[in-house]
Specification:
Low-confidence stretches: 1-10, 422-428
Strand content: 15-25%
Number of helices: 16
Distance between the termini: 60 Å
Shape: elongated
Order of helices and strands: EEEHEHEHEHHHHHHEHEHHHHEEHEEEEH
Structural class: alpha/beta
Mean pLDDT: 90
Number of strands: 14
């Protein structure tokens, strides 16, 4: 059993053994949720080194547990390598390492382990690296079961390697992948055995049950893919997971985290800001603040999916002076924000006053933006504008059900109507 949270410099690690698995523990416990890094099939924990180097600079001292799964790296086998047994071992490792409600990060097959873990045990969220549930892959493996279990394994694994797209990686990353992977047939077959024994109907039922359990856990879920998802897969995930965010890092193949380790480290650092969504029922002022702040932050980033995650399906949305009238439903609101992102780039937003009431809040703030398009029909010309913006929010079941925005349209008109060379006036 590991020594729990032993004091160490933030940029060094302790080699430990937890739940019979070799691991490295970085950083120290604080208010940030710890990260648990699970490598893909045939890879060991050292595959994360490029990411960890960037993370130590971006998010110093973040507590991280990097595991060698059973049969990988320095960890001995612990049969069976079934989904439930591996997830139970990971949970035991988390407990022995003394981690509290971690963010689960899994690559490839371990994206599934991370997802199932979050559906069964306390977790702060999931980062799934290029492991969307793909029935086509299941069909391919099932069709080649005899080869996988027999003399044809090298040929099947060669096809798998070809699909990884390692030629898209920087030279150093290609070398890391080549030297880190140990594709033993007995190991691969053992991890795939449960899948190979399923019928298509059993696979679909298993997938539906897993997605339902994950949705019930109501945790943030970030899927990073190295290529565009098939439309049916994307739709199924979007329908099943209310807090899903998908990013496609085109041209990175099966290893987006190695193609852009610094970018991925920033995504990991951002998970420190993930928060549990307030539950339905009576919302406290702190709950209302969480929802409003998440909504405004998503607006600032121009992240339409994250904006929509804060509103209800029957959202009523209106901006006085925009000439659009009242909008109803997420599709209409999505179109509004997609258009807004072309017209205005939000540089900063400052809350001046926020008043809470039962199931509602009144917000007064100031927006600093760049007029990149034609807001309110006026040519922005890339000019900076500063204006007051008031909001009325009404809430239902932990989400924004009504949003009424009242911008200072007169100030915006005045700033965009004067000659570009004039200095912009600040809002007092």
């Amino acid at each position: 059993m590991a020594t729990r949270n032993a004091a160490r410099p933030a940029d060094t690690s302790a080699q430990i053994t937890v739940a019979g698995m070799a691991a490295e523990l970085y950083g120290f416990a604080d208010e940030r949720p710890p990260l648990v890094l699970l490598p893909g099939l045939t890879f060991n924990r050292r595959i994360w080194q490029p990411v960890l180097g960037h993370l130590s600079r971006i998010d110093p001292g973040r507590q991280v547990l990097a595991l060698d799964l059973p049969g990988h790296g320095d960890s001995p086998d612990q049969l069976p390598h079934s989904m439930q047994h591996i997830v139970s071992l990971i949970h035991q490792a988390v407990e022995e390492a003394g981690l509290e409600t971690p963010v689960m990060v899994g690559h490839s097959i371990a994206g599934g382990f991370a997802s199932v873990y979050a559906s069964q045990h306390p977790a702060h969220g999931v980062v799934n690296l290029d492991a969307p549930p793909d029935p086509a892959l299941f069909t391919l493996l099932r069709a080649r079961e005899e080869q996988i279990r027999g003399d044809g394994f090298p040929g099947v694994w060669a096809l798998m390697k070809q699909s990884f797209g390692t030629d898209l990686l920087p030279v150093s990353a290609r070398h890391l992948v080549a030297h880190n992977s140990r594709p033993r047939q007995d190991l691969v077959v053992s991890y795939w055995d449960e899948l190979l024994r399923q019928t298509p109907g059993q696979f679909d039922a298993m997938l539906a049950g897993s997605l339902a359990a994950l949705a019930a856990s109501d945790v943030p879920y970030l899927l990073i893919a190295g290529a565009e998802l098939a439309p049916d897969i994307s739709q199924r995930l979007s329908d099943a997971l209310p807090r899903l965010k998908t990013e496609v890092w085109a041209g990175t193949g099966h290893f987006p985290h190695l193609a852009h380790p610094g970018r991925f480290a920033r995504r990991l650092a951002d998970t420190a800001q993930w928060r549990p969504r307030p539950k339905a029922g009576s919302l406290t002022p702190a709950d209302l603040d969480w929802i409003i702040d998440a909504h405004f932050e998503a607006e600032r980033r121009g992240d339409v999916d994250a904006i929509l995650a804060t509103v209800s399906d029957d959202i009523s949305h209106e901006v006085l002076g925009a000439g659009l009238g009242k909008l109803s439903g997420k599709d209409a609101v999505r179109a509004f924000y997609e258009q807004l992102s072309q017209e205005l780039s939000i540089d900063a937003y400052t809350t001046i006053r926020r008043i809470h009431g039962p199931g509602h809040a009144w917000e007064e703030g100031v927006v600093h933006a760049t007029a990149t398009g034609k807001p309110f029909g006026l040519d922005g010309g890339g000019r900076r504008v500063i204006y007051r913006l008031n909001h009325l929010f009404e809430f239902s079941n932990g989400l924004i059900q009504r949003e009424l925005g009242v911008p200072d349209v007169a100030s915006i008109f005045a700033q965009l109507s004067r000659p570009e060379q004039q200095e912009e006036q600040s809002v007092e």
